[in-house]
Design a protein that fits this description.
single chain, alpha/beta, Aspartate Aminotransferase, domain 2, seven-stranded mixed sheet, 13 strands, globular, binds pyridoxal-5'-phosphate
């Protein structure tokens, strides 16, 4: 066993350890608080040095997603907004009622953008759309699924809850399944990489608390057939969540610009909740997202209250107790200054860059785009090892995401890709990468063998163990 472990460590974990901890020589690790604190200047210099080492790759547009805006003046402005409210905490809204103002307005602005004003109940009414600000997409999803589970237990007597979702729904729904003991039933996709409606409806049973659709899903960037799913949800009497974490702040503007975007939000009567990340295409700093519900009743199943605690009467709307008010201040500041016109302009620039990148993919005979998308896209290499292409792209500095089933490469376009020349560089690097893989037999090293190995191991518990070890490695000094 110890020997197996050592082998796994050297073959698989050692390169990951190197990638995660490249600074051991340059910046020795600290395992105890310094006896005498070091000077602020010295520490700020170290922080600056570390930032400089990591900044150029994402700033020059080599990353998928990650930093969605990234212009220096926007970052500076976000930092100022955060700094002004860095001491605030939403848990103490008696001390900082400004935090409540920021969050209520972030929710209202997001809800209005997502069709809340086009439902029969007005925003702010008991039946109208309402929501919460959370720390990110996963928390928004977890909160909604906890609310679904508790609502269904209370209202429909479901004690063995199940969720039905296409395989493309985000990993956070599986996390919710594990955390809250909800059985996850995944269903296949159709040829266009969208939920297969027959399979989805067939999977609904008396324990189903809700169905999940995405606008857009993470892997392919496709939009599920949400109009039909909304009808299914109404007909079968189940809740329906639309995951707009990635697309929620992109599709409304793309739709206004005339892109082919079907209805995906609260305009669809079966949609009972949505998640929508301000920290992606909302261009707020990392750490905020919005979860929305149709009606306050459902939202109340998200809330936590404690009436007889010695520490006082306690309530908290989301998972955290104390929360960073500065992040909500900065998020609010982003929405208020970018404005509708700013979002439209940014979306237009991104769509233009995507057009160049997608045309480039299509012009390379070995590559094939997966599904029809607006924005986020993915492609595969049918006649070559896609993961070798991914490796070649990474040697050319690109930080793209490898998908599985089928092996594919994903890119979430951001404002970083709108700098002149970046989209063209993506295409020329991709052309070179494909040519190299085509012409080079038996390429060694890289991540491709690891992806191949993970896919070939039928016993997924081994892969789970390896992934847990990766997280152990993350926490190494
Ligand atoms: C469609 C979708 N849902 C949920 C999430 C989870 O968001 P986060 O990483 O902010 O928790 C993501 C992240 O990329 C996403 O793309």
């Amino acid at each position: 066993m110890a020997q197996d472990q050592a082998q796994a460590d050297s073959e698989f974990l050692a390169p990951i350890d190197q990638m995660m901890h490249p600074y051991r020589q340059q910046f020795p690790a600290n395992s105890r608080i310094p006896r005498q604190g070091r000077s602020r200047d010295e520490i700020l210099a170290e922080l600056t040095e570390l930032r400089a080492l990591e900044e150029s790759r994402w700033k020059q547009g080599y990353a998928s997603g990650s930093v969605y805006h990234g212009d220096s003046s926007h970052i500076e402005y976000m930092n100022q907004a955060y700094a002004l409210h860095s001491q605030t905490n939403q848990l103490h809204s008696d001390l900082w009622p400004s935090a409540a103002k920021f969050e209520a307005e972030i929710i209202a602005m997001t809800a209005t953008m997502l069709g809340a004003d086009r439902t029969t109940a007005p925003f702010g009414s008991e039946e109208g759309v309402c929501g919460s600000v959370s720390s990110g997409g996963s928390e928004s999803i977890l909160l909604a699924m906890k609310a679904y589970r508790d609502w269904a237990r209370d209202k429909r007597g479901i004690t063995e809850p199940e969720l039905v979702m296409p395989v493309s729904a985000h990993a956070a729904f599986h996390k919710a399944g594990q955390y809250f003991q909800i059985k996850i039933r995944t269903t296949p996709l159709d040829d266009g990489f969208r939920a297969d409606l027959n399979a989805l409806e067939d999977a609904i049973n008396e324990n189903t608390i809700g169905i999940i659709g995405s606008a857009v899903n993470f892997p392919y960037g496709t939009i599920d057939p949400l109009e039909e799913m909304s009808e299914i949800a109404l007909r079968r009497g189940v809740l329906m969540h639309v995951d707009g974490c990635l697309g929620g702040y992109f599709l409304p503007w793309a739709e206004k610009l005339g892109a082919p975007v079907p209805q995906f939000d609260f305009r669809l009567p079966g949609v009972t909740s949505m998640s929508c990340d301000t920290h992606k295409y909302g261009y707020a700093p990392k750490g905020t997202s919005v979860v929305l519900y149709r009606g306050m009743e459902l939202r109340r199943y998200q809330f936590f209250t404690l009436a007889d605690w010695p520490g006082g009467l306690y309530y908290s709307p989301t998972f955290s107790g104390s929360r960073p008010g500065g992040l909500s201040a900065a998020c609010w500041a982003a929405l208020m200054t970018i404005g509708e016109q700013g979002y439209l302009d940014a979306t237009k620039r991104i769509l233009d860059a995507v057009a160049i990148m997608k045309q480039g993919v299509e012009s390379i005979p070995e590559l094939r785009l997966l599904g029809k998308t607006v924005g986020v896209f993915a492609f595969t290499a049918d006649s070559l090892d896609t993961y070798q292409v991914l490796d070649q792209m990474s040697y050319r500095h690109w930080a793209l995401t490898g998908l599985q089933h089928p092996p594919a490469i994903h890119l979430s376009p951001t404002q970083r890709h709108t700098t002149p020349g970046v989209a063209e560089r993506f295409v020329s690097d991709l052309r070179e990468s494909v040519a190299f893989v085509r012409e080079t037999p038996n390429i060694e090293g890289g991540m491709a063998p690891i992806y191949g190995l993970a896919a070939s191991i039928p016993d997924k518990s081994i892969v789970h163990d390896l992934l847990k070890q990766v997280m152990d490695v993350y926490y190494r000094l």
